[in-house]
## 1
Amino acid sequence: MSERTIRLDLSYDGTDFSGWQRQRNARSVQEELETALAALHGHPVEAIGAGRTDAGVHARMQTAHFRTDLPSIPGDRFRLALNRFLPRDIRIQESREADPDFHARYDARLRSYRYFIEPSRECPPWRARYAWHLRRRPDLGSLNAMASSLIGETDFTAFSSARDPAENRYRYVYSASWRYEDGQAVFEISANAFLWRMVRSLVGSMVEYEGEGRDPSWMREVLESRDRSRAGSTAPACGLFLWNVEYYRQPTRSSRYGDDFSD
Amino acid sequence: MSERTIRLDLSYDGTDFSGWQRQRNARSVQEELETALAALHGHPVEAIGAGRTDAGVHARMQTAHFRTDLPSIPGDRFRLALNRFLPRDIRIQESREADPDFHARYDARLRSYRYFIEPSRECPPWRARYAWHLRRRPDLGSLNAMASSLIGETDFTAFSSARDPAENRYRYVYSASWRYEDGQAVFEISANAFLWRMVRSLVGSMVEYEGEGRDPSWMREVLESRDRSRAGSTAPACGLFLWNVEYYRQPTRSSRYGDDFSD
């Protein structure tokens, strides 16, 4: 019997997860999803995600795929079938049959993240789980001048972790900008892929440099130094959302950057 | 020693509360606030709120007052002092010394509420606590035509509860309208005061009538009938936020509507 490949678009509240990736003695999104898949199939099924979000990071839209030997369920019905088994903090938004060799991680063309900062004296309680509470209102002019130096193909060593196993630390950033939305400062960044904790390191550093009154050209200097010790602190996980993952309509495997830690 | 009156503006996540008002064997916002006030004062202190929000209803901005005999704390420092004793789902946003006879409920000139509807097939998990998940996208044209008939001084008996002790069921609605914001349908209404569950009854009814394809003039007909059996079902508490409370700069007690159940 031939297997089909099913693509899932899912969202989750990362608060109570140790991250996307399955690991010992910790609750992960991948594990919950694979538990639901096993319940549906009667045997283990592996789920592969586009981005390995870190502990506490949310996903508005994460993409994953798995292979199924269940002939009776149409691709678009896996959404309902899986949501019945999944906990409330994970929801499949859409499911469909994909090209047989579709791969959620390797075929992704672009990932976007949004980072939310609540710049108020006291954090409104319903925002505390989904934003970094900063007790001042950062200046967008300065932040956007810094963000503009991220665009293009750049070596992000300075904003990556020594623990990240990636050898190639160049990433191609398509867009990076700040805006105020509904009282919050929102950073949006799209790239072909990300290094581990790269977005949180960028956000933490930009906000720190802005608070210190540094000239925005400092961002470019730190990037070019490739020196991790010059980066600022890492912004908290709760403010970060994997916002979207995009694919080529015709899947290719030509990407130079096969891997993505996405946070 | 003379007592001072302190005004508090506070926000809370209503999810884990039985509502504003203190009651036996249930966790209320008023009780948590009075527990913090007692810890600070060393004796019981009563807190009075502008609106008695119902179980599960949130507050972006609720106003309350209390009288203090502590001479050493300036009005604007009660915020920090109380937040230290309060649980994370209640935050004082601002505190200040008010006119000695300021009364948070009786002096309020206007209350506004916002109701959030998430009109998607599957609810994003981080919105589930703060919106009514409706599996269709309601039409704003029809909803706004219905909302327009709420404006002015109207007898809201049809959208009130038989359990509400209010004798006078006229309320003055200043504004009432729907819009889409960030993918959600948002209803905003401002009035001098509200009857118990009035906003949720209005929202549930408008959405129900719109879904049934009724002519928007139906809203006016139901209002004029004063017949509770013609109202639709009550929308869930989680979508409702007490958004703002406004006061006269010169407090008066001339209001015809001293009481407010605010939900």
Note: Chain A touches chain B at residues 11-13, 58, 60, 79, 83, 88-93, 120-126, 128-130, 182 (CB under 8 Å).
## 2
Amino acid sequence: MKTIRTSIIGFGAVGQGVAKVILSKNEYLNNMGIDLRVVAIADSKTAVIDENGLDLSAVLARKLEQGSVGSENIGGTEIIKTVEHDLVVEITPTNINDGGVGLGNMIAAFEKGMDVVTSNKGPLALKYCELEEMAKNSGSQFKFEATVGGAMPIINLASETLAGNKILSMEGILNGTCNYILCRMMEENAPYDQMVAEAQELGIAETDPIYDVEGIDTACKLVILANAIFGMNATYKDVSVTGITKITPEALLLAQNNGYDIKLIGEVNGSKINVSPKLVPKDNPLAVGGTLNVASLQTDISGPITITGRGAGSIETASAILSDIISIYKD
Amino acid sequence: MKTIRTSIIGFGAVGQGVAKVILSKNEYLNNMGIDLRVVAIADSKTAVIDENGLDLSAVLARKLEQGSVGSENIGGTEIIKTVEHDLVVEITPTNINDGGVGLGNMIAAFEKGMDVVTSNKGPLALKYCELEEMAKNSGSQFKFEATVGGAMPIINLASETLAGNKILSMEGILNGTCNYILCRMMEENAPYDQMVAEAQELGIAETDPIYDVEGIDTACKLVILANAIFGMNATYKDVSVTGITKITPEALLLAQNNGYDIKLIGEVNGSKINVSPKLVPKDNPLAVGGTLNVASLQTDISGPITITGRGAGSIETASAILSDIISIYKD
């Protein structure tokens, strides 16, 4: 049995999902030869540390009751620098302007030769190649399946499961909020604003949905895929981005009457990285409904391979983090 | 660089596909630290052996011109027993009555501690647990992604990419011939016999299509999935099987008018393994057209994950064999 000491830096919905999944999968991990101990958890204000392993149930209960994980006044970066552990699960909020605290956390982890598993898109959309290089030089593992598509395992599918293939191009729906809004606009023949409001009421869209509806979230994910799957050296500024805010019910009706959906499609093709609304035939594997995500890979010897799954959700995103942890440490 | 000596036993369309793929991916394999040398190839009548590695282009050309791979009068099993090598790529025709020569070939390989990668469903549909046990006891690797879904990587997706998940159930379309026939019956409002004839003309259905249209092929694949993904101890006789021969254009029309397709669905759910035609809503991810295969996994923490790909084709099936080879030998 390999003992792996980990921190969870960031303890919002996904961070709590990770704690819940680690709790429920303890025996499963042990059966794979992994004794995973969470030695530190930090939220935006507080932290809790126990080098022998935290009682995750107690921490989750405290977060629920008090809104904070603990009483220690120490930041995530400081934990990475001072608490002895092997793995940083970096789940602070995405910031695509400067990478936010996540970027510093990742750098601090790599400087100490620690492994990083993350769902934080910002640092990867800005500094993918630098981070990969740092991880390589320090002998760290760096995995980020959870940054793209939630539970949909597109990165590991392309780079491991489809080993032997050259991936020629990729297109997909990488933002469930936009997909939900477009589907509902078509179903109800309703205007954009009305369906954004509905999505907000249901918790599918955020109070300020600009990050999703303007295609920015999709663009960040495409940058990660362009680098991780296609070996490009891309950053956010290389993406051509159009969102869904100008789609009308009339356009959707016209598409529908001709056998098409309108979907916000992200694609990587040659050197082009593009996000824009596109007509998709209703019988195409990309024409998935609701908040689902989907990605279709064109490969040289396997032909087209399409994968569909839930693109969001705290437990679903935590599942991607767990699969990355297992792939690093399994015997 | 690791030198791996392999035989290819069976040299029909898929066997030749494997040779072509190994030829075209030589540099790719070298970059992964694998020097893959094919030291023996056997078809049903002849064989060719070169312990230093065969010239695959020459063998492929000879097979095309003369219909046979070589002049040596030695069978596949004898090659496995007498030629020194590490890996047997077993691609003889599927026989679900007694496992055919494939079963003996796999046993012979495991007795010598050799690894086996195969697309041959027969031995696995009949003797999965025995073969797994033999492989385990002899320290052999045993991989069979190519037995189910051609290029669609369902086994490795479930067991590796989705590590951490418990797979709760699976349903899918695992036979492209049936899917083609049903799609075309619906499109043309045409009877079963007519569309079987069309599929035969196009090389999508065999001269005797019973194995596909009666659901036998799907049932064999389900047995393999039930064992490999769900840890069952199932054989072909545990499957409840109904084929597509009694589906009428009227039934398809009625389904279509209510927003459904009729698909031959295979499912593993609890202890039930079942193949039968089912109504599938047209907007369900399982409603794929043409000869595509699709599988939808219900998981405990990732939710539903659906994968779609080409279920047949010599290069596509060879791609699954290549990915298995890489997963065994990559550094």
Note: Residues 121-137 of chain A form the longest helix (17 residues).
